[in-house]
Design a protein that fits this description.
heterodimer; A: mainly alpha; about 65% helix; globular; B: 5-stranded antiparallel β-sheet
Chain lengths: ~210, ~240
């Protein structure tokens, strides 16, 4: 057990949350982070699906990594990701229809999420299954963390709600003249917020700043 | 690792066949469950359009609850043609609107459902189908028995943008339609328009559009106008009674 959670392995889980975050440091997967962060709920559902797919595709690729012919490895990775996503979608449609309806468009987005291909290529192809499994969870959580922070600000400032609950309306903010910022709902604001987060992170963690 | 070409061919073939087999077996095994879910979702949409069935998530068996509520409130159905005459021998619930809307207007079979409310009043439920930004949108609109005032509306979609166009399937957006009217005081058909904040509004014929979801909003407006136009002969012949 101590072997399974050695300090190196714990780092695989915690590093992506900060110094090695897939979105803010590696700047991967920002297209979907931009598309699903208008409201908190879709951001949460998307994050959860990315964690599941990333973890299991990492695990599967790592298990078969020694047999994959080098020249077609990208295709093999893609086949695994795509089948996993379809499989998950089919099961959701049969047993938890409501969840699958919320997922609707994200299914396609998960397949194209560059974090997943990136991790398969950079990590799972050369590491043991258990390490890859942890790396999948860690990177997925790193993605989730940023998406949810961005979604919180976009939903709160853009629609005046949190998780669909009309907070500002209940507080009476509209009666004293507050107006929702419609710009927050539009895609560019996701990038500006993301930029702000990267800025804050770099000013706090100096080691991330590139040397001239 | 570098392997020879034969290995690559065999590897690729085995992988593809294996994956295809897994996926098709899964799809076949799960199909009955998925179809049942779709049927329940349609029944629930019909119930929601007459403000029923909101407790479905609290029920121990959602499917049983929806079936039972559907039996209780949806008391009848009818299929009409483009002239407003009823067509015998067709099951309204079994009609696939996607297929009907692919036909020329005069050949379409149009389903109508009836709901009996607890207070004895009657609602007429008409299905809708149209285009959003990325794919089809659909829904049900229920009318009071004057065949003019909207009693409720439900909209759904397959691929609209979450948080933007997809908001048409939320309750606050749909609640706006209650009390709106299809016809003006002189009895002319004007439908309901979905307006942005800078467009002029009228009390009985406009609702607010979704910010950031203009194309879906306009698609929805067109869907209501187009579908109601198809039902006009049927509505007119009952309205004047």
């Amino acid at each position: 057990m101590s072997q399974l959670f050695s300090s190196k392995n714990v780092k695989l889980l915690t590093n992506p949350l900060n110094e090695n975050n897939p979105i803010t440091v590696q700047v991967l997967g920002i297209c979907s982070a931009l598309a699903v962060t208008v409201k908190l709920k879709p951001a949460f559902v998307m994050s959860l699906s990315v964690i599941v797919v990333l973890t299991f595709s990492n695990l599967i690729i790592s298990l078969i990594r020694k047999g994959i012919p080098n020249r077609i490895r990208i295709i093999v990775q893609l086949v695994i990701i795509a089948s996993l996503v379809i499989l998950v979608d089919q099961v959701l449609k049969a047993f938890v229809y409501d969840v699958s309806k919320q997922l609707s468009v994200y299914v396609g987005l998960i397949i194209t999420n560059c974090i997943i291909m990136g991790r398969l290529e950079a990590f799972a192809m050369t590491n043991k299954p258990w390490d890859s499994f942890l790396d999948g969870i860690g990177k997925g959580l790193g993605y989730a963390r940023i998406s949810i922070v961005v979604a919180f600000f976009r939903e709160f400032l853009g629609s005046g709600t949190i998780w669909g609950y009309p907070v500002l309306e209940k507080l009476g903010a509209y009666q004293i003249g507050y107006v929702n910022n419609g710009l927050m709902i539009l895609p560019p604001m996701a990038l500006i917020l993301l930029g702000t987060i990267i800025w804050i992170q770099r000013s706090r963690t100096r080691s991330l700043i590139e040397k001239k | 690792m570098n392997k020879n070409n034969l290995y690559i061919f065999i590897y690729a073939s085995v992988l593809v066949i294996l994956v295809a087999a897994i996926l098709s077996v899964t799809a076949t095994v799960l199909k009955p469950y998925q179809d049942k879910n779709k049927e329940i979702a349609r029944k629930l949409n019909i119930l929601h359009s007459v403000d029923k069935g909101w407790d479905s998530n609290q029920a121990t068996s959602k499917n049983d609850y929806v079936e039972q509520q559907y039996e209780k409130y949806i008391t009848g159905s009818l299929v009409v043609n483009s002239k407003g005459d009823s067509v015998k021998g067709m099951d309204a619930f079994a009609i696939d609107l996607e297929k009907e809307y692919a036909k020329p207007p005069e050949e379409r079979a149009l389903p109508v459902f009836f709901c009996a409310q607890n207070d004895g009043s009657k609602n007429i439920i008409l299905p809708l189908r149209g285009k959003g930004l990325w794919g089809p949108i659909w829904g049900y609109i229920s009318l009071q028995d004057d065949f003019n005032t909207i009693a409720g509306a439900v909209f759904d979609h397959s691929d609209e943008t979450p948080g933007l166009g997809a908001e048409i399937s939320t309750r606050p957006f749909q609640l706006q339609f209650i009390g709106k009217k299809l016809f003006d005081d002189e009895g002319h058909f004007v439908s309901v328009s979905v307006n942005k904040s800078n467009e002029p509004k009228t009390e009985f014929h406009s609702v607010d559009a979704i910010s950031g979801g203009t194309i879906t909003s306009k698609g929805l407006q067109k869907m209501i106008a187009d579908c109601m136009t198809l039902y006009l002969p049927y509505i007119e012949s009952n309205k004047n009674r």
